[in-house]
Amino acid sequence: MKIRMKMSLLAIVIALILTHSVYAFEFDYSEIFENHGLVRLIIDVETGSILKVNKAAEHFYGYTKDELVSMNIKEINTLTPEETEREWNAAANEKRNHFRFRHRLSNGEIRDVEVYSYPFIHEGKEYLYSIVVDKTDEVALAKNLEKNRLITTFLVALIIVLLLLGSILLYISKEKYKKLAVYDYLTGAYSRIYLDEWKKKTLSKRRCEIPKICVVLLDINRFKYINDTFGHMIGDKILTIVADTLKCCIREDDLVIRYGGDEFLLVLEKVTQDQCKKIMNRVESELLSCKTFEFSISISYGIHEIKDDMELFDAIKIADEKMYEMKKSASEDN
């Protein structure tokens, strides 16, 4: 009998110890929830009502515990139902274990948060155990980094565009000055500079291939008088007409060069002096038939064929002498 009483007493003591341990465990768990440093919420899945919060939630949101448990999660989450659904789908597609929401605090401030939600069933009803982590500073930093990245990308792209633009402008400038060096800006004829380049790079080769090359030096009669009497605009117009007429009367491979002032030089290939004379007769005829002005446009010219090893400018000098002989003869006839 005494043994039975002792065993019963021992069983009661053990039961009390186990019961106390369970209560102690439950108490410790509640303490963990209440005092945890992260925001913790328990939410009714069906209604969205906030059922339980910890101290960190009070501190973060700026509401009292009683105020929070009287609120619905929709009053805190600023995303619309459509945006919330999109975020749920995005989390599922990206296999994330959290959602990215924007929560409103009691002072109206909006904070970027990550919500880690874990569903559980209690007495046949579904709840969410949610841990809220403030990510506002990280989101702001990420936005600033992205902004800086975009600015850097834009600046790099701008620098590249400016470099390309600079290269294009430099190329255009080079081409422009090259063209100015090659062509006379007023008449479109080749320039004296081009003649020097042509002599260095082309003439020696062309003379081996083409035995007959003639030069014709010409100028416009009474050009100074025309300039002084009718003005430089008329003089420029006459220079242009003469240059265009020369271009029309020669072949594509021949050269029309504005040699200086009102002087033009023709370099003609595969022609004799007699053939040059026929070309110049045609030029004279075309100019005399020009009715643009109240006076006629006439020219004087000299022709010389480059023979053997004669230098180009020696041939031009001889053509120049012949031109002045023609001009002198025309003056004596008048």
Automatic annotation (TrEMBL):
The lineage of its organism: Bacteria, Bacillati, Bacillota, Clostridia, Peptostreptococcales. The gene is ydaM_1. InterPro entries: Diguanylate_Cyclase, GGDEF_dom, Nucleotide_cyclase, PAS, PAS-like_dom_sf, Rev_trsase/Diguanyl_cyclase. This is Putative diguanylate cyclase YdaM. Pfam families: GGDEF, PAS_9. One of its GO terms (molecular function) is diguanylate cyclase activity. It comes from Alkalithermobacter paradoxus. Its EC number is 2.7.7.65. NCBIfam families: GGDEF, sensory_box. PROSITE patterns: GGDEF, PAS. It is an enzyme of class 2 (transferase). Residues 211-334 form the GGDEF domain.
